[in-house]
Amino acid sequence: MMDKEALDRFQCGLAPTIRLEVMTRFPTSIDEAMRLALAVEAAQQHSQNILAEQHGFSPSHPQQASPQLVPEYLHTSGVAAMDLDGVPARTTPSLNVTESIPLVVPEEELIDLSDDQDVVSQELQKTLEKDKNYFNSLLSIKESDLPLYLMSCNGRAVKVLIDSGASRSYVASTIVAGLPTRLIPNREVETAGGHVLAINKQVTLPLDAQGYKHTMNAYVLDTKFDLILGRSWLKTVQPTPNWASDT
């Protein structure tokens, strides 16, 4: 049998916990693999004894001390224990515990899976909840305050909404009191809420926009605004906005 094949079969016969330790060290011969297996087995048993002493209990079935250490992988059926007295001196295993990967994880590196959270975690959770509530409040806003401009119309100060979404201009009936109106038959307008309103009057408004005096035709329609100036007014006047002063 080839040495490599024999080495593979030897490693496959090891216990899973020992096999991983041995294979990750890439032994090149059966002798080296045997030394590693014995060292790992001894280290694991030594760790178990230390843990038992720290927790104040001993194994339920104590074993008598034996001068010959029999590793776990030799406990399987059909495999005889190895007589270490017959092993040449060059193959005597070195039970160096430092060759094994530490099996005890430091307490500070453990992950706390308990329900108790420290102060930092609780504060972070509160902050996340506040942010979530804030974003939800922003998403729930259906309407926002629209910018209104102050103008003079028919001798009184009115609050004006400039709306490029409206094709025409509209004025409240209270603003046009005393001004001559014209009848407009079969005219309707649909509001932003989907309501269709009938319009039957039109009026020419005298406007004074901070010294800019002009006239504008508007339909009489009672809304929550005094005056709505639509695209028809924007095309006629072509105002230049001052973004710094919002005028």
Précis, in short:
GO terms for molecular function: aspartic-type endopeptidase activity. With 247 residues, this protein is an alpha+beta fold.
Descriptive overview:
The protein has 247 residues and is α+β, with helices and mostly antiparallel strands. The chain has 2 domains: 3-104, no CATH class; 149-237, Beta Barrel (Cathepsin D, subunit A, domain 1). Helix content is 29%, strand content 20%. The protein has helices at 3-12, 16-23, 30-54, 119-139, 231-237, and strands spanning 149-153, 156-162, 170-171, 181-190, 196-209, 212-220, 227-229. Strands 1-2-7-3-6-5 form a 6-stranded mixed barrel. A hairpin with a 5-residue loop joins strand 4 and strand 5. The longest helix has 25 residues, at 30-54. Residues 60-68 and 76-98 have low confidence and may be disordered.
